[in-house]
């Protein structure tokens, strides 16, 4: 009898194509997507280059040597100049323009070498740490790993730039000024030698593999000169993580709810109310637009309530540019609705909608940045992510909440989402109208 | 009020309607009587603009349903065969929604909803969710949604399927009341009793063809007001022998049908004749002249013999 029941259950499962699809295909597809994402993140050959703006306000031999050493490091792509307008002419970055570039998301990190760098080193090295000129790293906390890598590499380079000769001379000066005896002076020289040996070890580790970055950044000694880090965008936010996470989460859950809501057309068809509507004076276009309208309104408020919650609990800056938030939210909701309609139009039953939407939403969320920020993915994966709805929506919200941009700056995202939404809607309408009167 | 001319609808190789001609007069209840799969719902779907015919036309109040779709829709009230309501809404909310689709607003909508709920005997349950209604109550709201806007022409597609006798009786009263108030009603059914009770005129439809049309009296007259003697048998007698033995009989699916004005006199003759050809009788039934007999006479089978709907 038990076998008989097992046979019945299996027969039912195998006849339900939606369940089959959900059960077998979805895990395989998601498995593939995650392997591509995480695999790319972990392979050394795919490490992304870090674009670093360097502002050399000192322009001294010491500062130029520091920059020169940075340029030799494999993971870094140094930018010292920026283009001016449409012309090919380039001008050096300043601390202010570097900060703007980081804030705008053009690079994740910038290094500012202060004007009195060389003089400060000469006067205070090994004498008064607090008076040493500080190197400043301007970074975007949305990409924290890159700034940490830069900091580690910088410490390494700072050591390398302080040549042993200059260091020994410094010790001599200090020994004279402090009236040190020979024994003390020798011990200091010995200590410095050890320091340089340690630097060499770091260099060896750097050549050995990618973990060297961590060794340099998290080594057992600090930088010989102060390195000041400035979170360009997050410093004014009381909960910068919430501002970023909100966009990722909001978009994924919006897609889930909207897919179900748009699929309710099929529920109406299965329940018979669709026929009743279509033989009423309402036209099929009115019906479809009404479905878009109701689903969009629901999606809009779903996003707004999430952000309102983020504003109350996590201090997400909802009202800095509220019109931009409203525009981005409305466009995201309407475009997601159109996508939901398209999927529903390709399905024959609500069950199919549920299984297909699960696959689509999870896949798009994975590659589009809802589960893992896209900047952590390999470059090619980031490009693939742009095929997803999530990437454009999240980018738009990032610009508003993270980069503190306004309506003008989010127009590319708004335009793409609107255009995609229109295309989705018209394709879905075509399929639905064919089916309504089949 | 409604006129169908040479109406044909094919679904691939299946012919659901074949050159159907019908005329429904203003103010009458017109019955479309036929078994499941006869083409009744297909006819309603075309008349309500939901399906396009393969050929032929349907005109309602002089308007072609395919060309004047928008105007036709405003004239119609439709009661679909399946219960087409929103389970999560109350009976009142459903009626308000469907009334709104036909342009009813504000006070007029409220008044009509109250009137219809009263007429349907659902005033006390107006606030209850549809999902908590009984089958009969849902049927009544289903009808209410089709008549709320006081349409001139109402198409009811088997509106009493699965309804208990009490609700059915109530529904009949509602339909007669609609007719008395001037509405024209097309009523499809496979229940002969419903057609006899409600309909002023009836078209009998089978296999997509209208085989007869008229009042009940006219239809009965078609078979000469004769009774039908129906005899079931077993075995496989030679049809030629049976026909020579009983030349006035029709043989169909192990049943012998004999139309006669005096069944009592005919029975001994038939029994004697059949025993002579070695046939075992399994049943004997006398059908007085009614629509079932008419249907049987015209189609050769009973209304309930078949089990699929187009």
Describe the protein in words:
The complex is a heterodimer of chains A (438) and B (310). Chain A is an alpha/beta fold. Chain A has two domains: 239 residues, no CATH class; 189 residues. Helices cover 68% and strands 7% of the residues of chain A. Chain A contains 18 helices and seven strands. In chain A, strand 1, helix 3 and strand 2 form a beta-alpha-beta unit. The longest helix of chain A has 31 residues. Chain A starts with a helix and ends with a helix. Chain B is of the alpha/beta class. In chain B, 36% of the residues lie in helices and 28% in strands. Chain B contains eleven helices and 14 strands. In chain B, the strands form three sheets. Chain B has a six-stranded mixed β-sheet with strand order 6-7-8-3-9-10, with helices on both faces. Chain B has a four-stranded antiparallel β-sheet with strand order 2-1-4-5, covered by helices on one side. In chain B, helix 6 links the parallel strand 7 and strand 8. In chain B, helix 5 packs parallel to helix 6. At the A-B interface, helix 12 of A face helix 2 of B.
Helix content of chain A: 55-70%
Q: Report the largest inter-chain contact.
A: A-B, 13 and 22 residues
CATH architecture of the largest domain in chain B: 3-Layer(aba) Sandwich
Number of domains of chain A: 2
Shape of chain B: elongated
Number of DSSP-assigned strands of chain B: 14
What's the overall geometry of chain A? Answer: elongated
- Quote the average pLDDT of chain B: 85
The ordered string of helix (H) and strand (E) elements of chain B is: EEEHEEHEHHHEHEHEEHEHEEHEH
Structural class of chain B: alpha/beta
* Radius of gyration of chain A from CA coordinates: 29 Å
Number of domain modules of chain B: 2
Strand order of the largest sheet of chain B: 6-7-8-3-9-10
Quote the CATH topology of the largest domain in chain B: Rossmann fold
What is the overall number of helices of chain B?
11
Unreliable spans of chain A: 42-47, 209-221
């Amino acid at each position: 009898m038990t076998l008989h029941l097992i046979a019945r259950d299996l027969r039912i499962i195998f006849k339900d194509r939606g369940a089959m699809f959900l059960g077998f295909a979805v895990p395989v597809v998601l498995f593939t997507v995650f392997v591509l994402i995480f695999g790319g993140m972990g392979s050394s050959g795919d490490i992304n280059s870090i674009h670093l703006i360097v502002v050399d306000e000192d322009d001294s031999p010491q500062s130029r040597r520091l920059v020169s050493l940075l340029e030799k490091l494999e993971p870094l792509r140094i930018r010292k100049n920026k283009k001016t307008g449409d012309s090919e002419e380039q001008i050096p970055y300043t601390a202010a323009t570097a900060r703007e570039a980081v804030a705008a998301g053009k690079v994740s990190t910038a290094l500012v070498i202060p004007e009195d760098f060389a003089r400060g080193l000469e006067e205070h090295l090994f004498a008064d740490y607090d008076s040493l000129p500080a190197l400043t790293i301007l970074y975007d906390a949305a990409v924290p790993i890159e700034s940490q890598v830069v900091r580690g590499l910088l410490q390494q380079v700072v050591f390398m730039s302080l040549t042993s000769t200059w260091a020994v001379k410094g010790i001599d000066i200090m020994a004279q000024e402090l009236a040190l005896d020979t024994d003390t002076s020798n011990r200091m020289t010995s200590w410095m030698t050890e320091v340089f040996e340690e630097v060499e070890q770091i260099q060896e580790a750097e050549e050995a593999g990618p973990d060297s970055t961590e060794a340099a950044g998290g080594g057992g000694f600090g930088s010989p000169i102060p390195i000041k880090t400035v979170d360009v965008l997050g410093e004014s936010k009381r909960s910068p993580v919430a501002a970023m996470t909100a966009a990722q989460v909001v978009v994924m859950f919006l897609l889930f709810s909207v897919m179900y809501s748009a699929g309710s057309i099929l529920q109406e068809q299965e329940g018979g109310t669709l026929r009743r509507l279509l033989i009423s004076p309402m036209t099929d276009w009115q019906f479809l637009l009404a479905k878009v309208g109701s689903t969009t309104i629901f999606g809009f408020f779903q996003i707004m309530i999430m952000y309102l919650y983020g504003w109350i609990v996590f201090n997400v800056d909802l009202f800095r540019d509220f019109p931009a938030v409203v525009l981005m939210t409305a466009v995201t909701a309407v475009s997601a609705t159109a996508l939901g309609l398209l999927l529903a139009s390709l399905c024959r039953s609500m069950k199919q909608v549920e299984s297909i939407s699960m696959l689509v939403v999870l896949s798009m969320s994975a590659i589009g940045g809802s589960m893992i920020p896209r900047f952590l993915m390999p470059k090619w994966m980031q490009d693939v992510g742009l095929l997803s709805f999530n990437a454009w929506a999240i980018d738009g919200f990032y610009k508003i909440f993270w980069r503190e941009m306004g309506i003008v700056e989010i127009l590319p995202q708004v335009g793409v989402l609107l255009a995609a939404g229109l295309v989705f809607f018209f394709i879905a309408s075509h399929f639905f109208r064919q089916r309504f009167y089949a | 009020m409604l006129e169908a001319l040479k109406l044909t609808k094919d679904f691939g190789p299946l012919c659901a309607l074949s050159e159907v001609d019908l005329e429904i007069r203003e103010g009458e209840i017109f019955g479309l009587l036929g078994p499941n799969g006869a083409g009744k719902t297909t006819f309603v779907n075309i008349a309500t603009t939901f399906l396009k015919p393969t050929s032929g036309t349907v005109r309602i109040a002089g308007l072609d349903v395919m060309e004047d779709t928008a105007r036709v829709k405003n004239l119609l009230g439709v009661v679909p065969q399946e219960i087409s309501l929103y389970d999560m809404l109350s009976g009142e909310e459903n009626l308000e929604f469907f009334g709104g689709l036909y342009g009813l607003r504000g006070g007029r909508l409220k008044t009509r909803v109250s009137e219809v709920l009263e007429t349907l005997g659902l005033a006390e349950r107006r606030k209850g969710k549809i999902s908590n209604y009984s089958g009969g109550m849902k049927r009544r709201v289903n009808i209410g949604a089709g008549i709320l806007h006081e349409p001139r022409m109402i198409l009811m597609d088997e509106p009493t399927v699965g309804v208990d006798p009490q609700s059915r009786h109530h529904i009949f009263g509602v339909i007669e009341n609609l007719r008395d108030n001037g509405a024209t009603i097309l009523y499809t059914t496979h229940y002969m009793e419903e057609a006899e009770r409600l309909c002023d005129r009836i078209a009998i439809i089978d296999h997509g063809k209208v085989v007869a049309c008229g009042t009940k009296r006219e239809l009965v007259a078609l078979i000469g007001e004769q009774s039908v003697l129906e005899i079931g048998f077993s075995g496989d007698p030679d049809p030629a022998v049976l026909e020579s033995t009983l030349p006035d009989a029709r043989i169909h699916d192990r049943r012998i049908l004999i139309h006669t004005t005096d069944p009592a006199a005919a029975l001994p003759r038939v029994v004697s004749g059949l025993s002579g050809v070695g046939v075992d009788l399994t049943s004997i039934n006398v059908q007085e002249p009614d629509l079932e007999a008419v249907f049987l006479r015209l189609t050769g089978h009973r209304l309930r013999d078949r089990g699929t709907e187009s």
